Structure formats: structure tokens, C-alpha cells
Amino acid sequence: MAPTFGYTGRPSFRSVSFEHSCNDLLLVTGGAGYIGSHVVLALRDAGHAAVVLDDLSTGRRDLVPDGVPFVRGDVGNGMLIRRVLADHSCRAVMHFAGSIIVSESTSEPLRYYRNNVTASFLH
Ligand SMILES: NC(=O)c1ccc[n+]([C@@H]2O[C@H](COP(=O)([O-])OP(=O)(O)OC[C@H]3O[C@@H](n4cnc5c(N)ncnc54)[C@H](O)[C@@H]3O)[C@@H](O)[C@H]2O)c1
Predict the structure, then answer these.
(1) Which of 10, 29, 35 to mutate to test the pocket of ligand 1 (most atoms within 8 A of CB)?
(2) What does the pLDDT average to over 10-31?
(3) Does the C-beta of 58 come closer than 6 Å to ligand 1?
(4) Strand 49-54 to strand 70-72: parallel, antiparallel, or no bridges (unpaired)?
(5) Do 50 and 28 form a contact (C-beta atoms < 8 A)?
(6) Ligand 1 atom 27: residue of nearest CA
(7) Could you give the CA distance from residue 83 to residue 74 in angstroms, rounded to a whole number?
(8) Closest ligand 1 atom to 97 CA
(9) Which atom of ligand 1 is the closest one to the Cα of 57?
(10) Which of 13, 35, 38 lies closest to 98, judged by CA?
(11) What is the pTM of this model?
């Protein structure tokens, strides 16, 4: 019999031990992007619910699976983040929102610093 490998093309969170119950939502920032959208799928496969926050600057709304709450907005908007965390009773955040084009990061370093560093602080 040929060996089988559990690889499904995306990471599995089944072995990850969360301190909260599976009924608690996780906020996934950048969940409409490449990494974040796959994380949302993996969380769903593992029975964890998620809410996505993304400004769609490079992400795509159609990458967020049906049934997953979606909030369009800037991760640097502290009031919005607080509202989303409260409205959805989020117990954890997985943060993937950011800018990733290396050439842009050297030509526009302050924009990248703001989006990838200071926007991550909850003011
Ligand atoms: N792609 C890779 O191979 C890889 C590897 C290692 C680490 N990472 C890291 O994972 C993270 C995500 O990378 P990716 O490849 O998914 O990029 P991506 O561009 O596909 O996704 C980033 C998402 O963040 C959103 N976003 C950007 N700025 C935002 C803001 N201010 N507010 C809300 N949403 C915002 C974009 O619209 C997009 O949907 C980055 O931190 C990257 O460095 C990526």
C-alpha cells in the first residue's frame, strides 16, 4: 500500500491547543490576502470560527469564505478594532494585515513602517 500523507495543501490547526473554546471567534486581520485567507480555511476545517478584517488594499473579498463575517477597514483604526473585538467577542487575533512588496518597501519606507509597524499597535 502506498504511504499516505495528511497534506491537504494548507496548514492544519488541529494540533494547536487554544486556551478558549471552539465557539470563541478569532479575528484574522488580512484575512482576504494570500496567507490570511488560507488560515481562515484551516481554522474553519479545525472547527474554529473567524471574523476577517481587511482593507482590501491588495486582498480580495471573494477569498473570504461564505459565512465568515467580513469587516472592511484599516487595522490601524483602533476604534474599529475595539468595536470588532467587542461585537464578535473575539478571544484571539491572528495578524496578517500588511504590505509585502519588497521594492515598494524600499521606495516608500515610511508608508511600510506605518502599515507594518505602527498600525499594529492598538491605540
Ligand atoms: N506570502 C508569503 O509567502 C509569506 C511568507 C511569510 C510571511 N508572510 C507574511 O504574512 C503576512 C501576509 O502576507 P500575504 O502574502 O498574505 O500578503 P497579502 O498582500 O496577500 O495579504 C495582506 C492582506 O492585508 C491587507 N491589508 C494590508 N494593509 C492593511 C491594513 N492597514 N488594514 C487592513 N488590511 C490590510 C491586504 O488587503 C491583504 O488582504 C505578511 O506579514 C507577510 O510578511 C507572507
Answers:
(1) 35
(2) 66
(3) yes
(4) parallel
(5) yes
(6) 98
(7) 13
(8) 24
(9) 37
(10) 35
(11) 0.87
Gap between the Cα atoms of 106 and 19, Å rounded: 39
CA 12 to ligand 1 centroid distance, Å: 19
The rounded distance, in Å, linking the Cα atoms of 46 and 57 is 28
User: Which residue do the cell numbers 494548507 mark?
Assistant: 10
Each as own residue / partner, the long-range contacts of residues 43-49 (CB below 8 Å, 24 or more positions apart, any chain) are 43/13, 44/68, 45/8, 45/10, 45/12, 45/13, 45/14, 46/12, 46/13, 46/14, 46/16, 47/22, 48/13, 48/18, 48/22, 49/22, 49/23, 49/24, 49/25
Q: Computed over its alpha carbons, how large is the radius of gyration of the chain?
A: 16
Q: Report the alpha-carbon distance of residue 29 to residue 73 in Å, rounded.
A: 10
Quickly state the pLDDT bin for 24 (edges 50, 70, 90): confident
pLDDT at 20 over 90: no
